[in-house]
Amino acid sequence: MRTIIVGAGIGGLSLAMALEKLGLPYMLLSKTPQADPGPGATIIWPNALTVLDHFGIADELRQAGRSIHLCRISTASANMLSAKTWPNGESPLIVAKTALRSVLWKFLQANSSHLGHSCVGFSERADGQVLVQTDDARTLEAELVIGADGAHSIIRRQLWGEIPVRHRVNVWQGLSEFAPDEPHALQEVIGDRGDRIRFCAVTNSQFYWQAETLNRSPNQQVNFQTELRNHFGRWGGLASGLIQATPGASLSYRVVPHISDRRYWGTGRCTLLGNAAEPCDSNLLLGDSIAIEEAGLLARLLAGAKKPTQALRTFEALRSCRSKWIRSPFQKRSAAQSLQAQYRWKAKRAANPSTMQVWTRLSSYDFDAHVHQGLSLLPRFGT
């Protein structure tokens, strides 16, 4: 049962790693070469570390990352909103994307990847085989196709067409040479309209930061560096200093769409994973950890299922429920974030309980129990 994974982001690489560990054949298809790791860093939350421990690679990642012992949220005027400390052994990690991808790539077979070329479409034959077409005119054959190709997924578009976008978020990120006062603290600062910037030390001399605003003019072309300074340049303090200290080569910008929720993620011999299923905004850098969690569960279900479609439908049933549960506090916050100026206080007020709820939900994940639940449900999805 060969699986084609479309997309070599963190979710796609995690699924390929898990399938490799379980001895299941796969092909990783990505337009991005292996040598291009993407900018910045990411947070690996305890839920994802639990999955990586299960597959035996978390310790190597812990050596490459830095533990976070304190998470703090405050307003731009320095008023504290919430804080949480993490005990030793249970804390999340901040790790450079280069290091995370390097650890995942280490476990993959070189001949199981087709890099530098993108998927342009797929079709399912009557005999159950899936044909994936690439931009270099190749046709790859497999029993399953997994769309892990991000927020602007081609696989999702072919499955469901253009899904309505609830709103869009501008996201900037960068690396700044800066000596940290609190080397193990993740900090988030929120402005009057729900604009926010979060930052954490990656090394003893380098900070990673990520800023976001609601995209209020989706059809208007703007200079993203000017927009960044307009939103955050006057905040003062460390947040403003990090932005000013970031060289242009270390700065990136993207627009993340928030699509309307769907009842189904996949159909037939295809399903979606990570941001391809439900694009996740930068809320405390949750996206990569959620994708790792999903990849581990899907791989274990594929290993235990008699029919591959059983694994896909069981995975979708379990993950759609858990994903909505994890994201639900932030969906409430996003609604508050988009209110008019006279309700600005609500955006700050909403940040406190929602963030604390998500921190708790990411800390109490029992991967083995989730897999056991999934395996017990496989017979219910017999077709």
Structural commentary:
By secondary structure, the protein is of the alpha/beta class. The protein has one domain (3-376): FAD/NAD(P)-binding domain, CATH 3.50.50. 37% of the residues lie in helices and 26% in strands. The model is unreliable at 333-351 (pLDDT under 50).
Element layout with pairings:
Blueprint (H helix, E strand, L loop, with lengths): L2 E4 L3 H13 L3 E5 L10 E4 L1 H9 L3 H7 L1 E2 L2 E6 L4 E6 L7 E4 H9 L7 E3 L3 E6 L5 E5 L4 E4 L1 E4 L6 H7 L4 E13 L7 E6 L5 E6 L4 E9 L9 H9 L4 H8 L6 E9 L10 E3 L14 H18 L3 H30 L6 H20 L3 H11 L6
Parallel strand pairs: 1-2, 1-12, 2-8, 5-14, 12-18
Antiparallel strand pairs: 3-7, 4-7, 5-6, 9-10, 10-11, 13-16, 13-17, 14-15, 15-16
Helix pairs in contact: 1-4, 1-8, 2-8, 8-9, 8-11, 9-10, 9-11
Provide a concise account of the structure shown:
With 383 residues, the chain is of the alpha/beta class. The protein is 37% helix and 26% strand.
User: Oligomeric status of the shown chains?
Assistant: single chain
CATH class: Alpha Beta
Helix/strand order, N-terminal first: EHEEHHEEEEHEEEEEHEEEEHHEEHHHH
Strand order of the largest sheet: 6-5-14-15-16-13-17
CATH homology-level superfamily: FAD/NAD(P)-binding domain
Tag the structure with descriptive keywords.
18 strands; alpha/beta; 383 residues; seven-stranded mixed sheet; FAD/NAD(P)-binding domain; five-stranded parallel sheet
